[in-house]
Design goal:
The chain is mainly α. It folds into two domains: 209 residues, HUPs (Rossmann fold); 90 residues, Orthogonal Bundle (Tyrosyl-Transfer RNA Synthetase). Strands 1-2-3 form a three-stranded parallel sheet. It has a two-stranded parallel ribbon with strand order 4-5. Strand 1, helix 1 and strand 2 form a beta-alpha-beta unit. Helix 8 crosses helix 9 and helix 11 packs across helix 13. The longest helix is centred in the C-terminal third of the chain and has 30 residues. It starts with a strand and ends in a 6-residue tail after the last helix. It binds tryptophanyl-5'AMP.
Length: 324
């Protein structure tokens, strides 16, 4: 069973990335032949147009991978662009991809809805993502809810290719943790770098507390009982809390008679404590860039070997070869 996932190096990873996907990367790792995690720098090029920023953020994301507990002995860690077989496979998939399939994809539709013009990179983004997944015969892809549509596109493309050229690709499945599939941001919308509503994993503790204290809440009187499941703040608290802490907080909401300030302080405290070991490891790996580079080089070597095998299979099945 191969697990695979990727994250774009578009900025500091936030709680949505961590709980929605990255934490699952760690729990699912175990054997470096089976767990593949990469930094999607080619995807990031559709939004980051600053060479120093993109390369620095790519490195920082590798440091983050190690800091959250990905172990190069238990998973293969690499940078997307180090496996050129994936971009070759993208072309094969593009030739099987109806325009309508991509026109329905949300990132493209959202951009058009805002009146912005999309480039072909953004339009074909889901096909590169499909190649990322199919190139390694992946079975399971841990992601947040927002990527489920892309997994469906991946399965569609694999099926179309298999239909035309015979069994070539394995059909992958998304792995979404329901309670963390869509982590809300400080304004209650989905937490996202592009909405400016993020709380980050590696962030100055004081600055983070300030952001938490400004999280939007309703203005019902303190004494009123409240439904925790509809409250943004509770949903964030729940990500960190133990069963016991969660139950206590839930009861407090249902009883009423508390202030949101109290919950915010508790959220800041629990988050600070939870991420402290990750922050410590982040500083440690950041101070050892040659180790990080070695991990990525070894990961790329392993990932390329697998992708070359799958690309070869796809090429010979569709006739991109000289007859034997
Ligand atoms: P990206 O970089 O936007 O996000 C990385 C992961 O974080 C999840 N996520 C969330 N989960 C829950 N709540 C949120 N508020 C939230 N925000 C982000 C995302 O669902 C994702 O799992 N296209 C991908 C990167 C990619 C990829 C791949 C992923 C490229 N190729 C192949 C899997 C397999 C993306 O933009 O993720």
């Amino acid at each position: 069973m191969r697990i695979l996932s990727g994250i774009q190096p578009t900025g500091n990873p936030h709680w949505g990335n961590y709980f929605g996907a990255n934490r699952q990367y760690v729990t699912l790792q175990g054997n470096k032949d089976d767990a593949f995690y990469f930094i999607a720098n080619l995807h990031a090029l559709t939004t980051v147009r600053d060479k120093e920023r993109l390369s620095q953020q790519t490195f920082d994301m590798a440091v983050y991978f190690l800091a959250i507990g990905l172990d190069p002995e238990k998973s293969t860690l690499f940078v997307q662009s180090d496996v050129p077989e994936v971009t070759e496979l993208t072309w094969l998939l593009l030739t099987c991809c109806p325009m309508g399939l991509l026109e329905r994809c949300h990132a493209y539709k959202e951009k058009l809805a805002k009146g912005l013009t999309a480039d072909a990179g953004l339009f074909t983004y889901p096909v590169l993502m499909a190649a990322d997944i199919l190139a390694y015969d992946s079975d399971l892809v841990p992601v947040g809810e927002d990527q489920q549509q892309h997994l469906e596109v991946t399965r569609d493309l694999a099926q179309t290719f298999n239909y035309h050229f015979g069994e070539t690709f394995i059909l992958p499945k998304a792995y979404v943790v329901p309670a963390a599939g869509k982590v809300p941001g400080t304004d209650g919308e989905k937490m996202s770098k592009s909405y400016n509503n993020t709380l980050e994993v590696i962030e100055d503790v004081k600055a983070q507390k300030k952001k938490i204290m400004r999280i939007e809440t309703d203005c019902r009187p303190m004494e009123d009982p409240k439904d925790p499941e509809t409250d943004n703040l509770y949903l964030l608290y729940k990500l960190f809390a133990s069963d016991e802490q969660r139950q206590e907080m839930e009861e407090m909401y249902r009883r009423g008679g508390f202030g949101y300030g109290q919950v915010k302080k508790e959220l800041a405290r629990i988050a600070e404590e939870y991420f402290a070991p990750i922050r410590e490891r982040y500083a440690k790996f950041q101070a050892d860039p040659s180790f990080v580079r070695d991990v990525l080089a070894e990961g790329a070597r392993r990932a390329r070997a697998k992708a070359a095998e799958v690309l070869d299979r796809a090429q010979s099945n569709c006739g991109i070869c000289i007859p034997k």
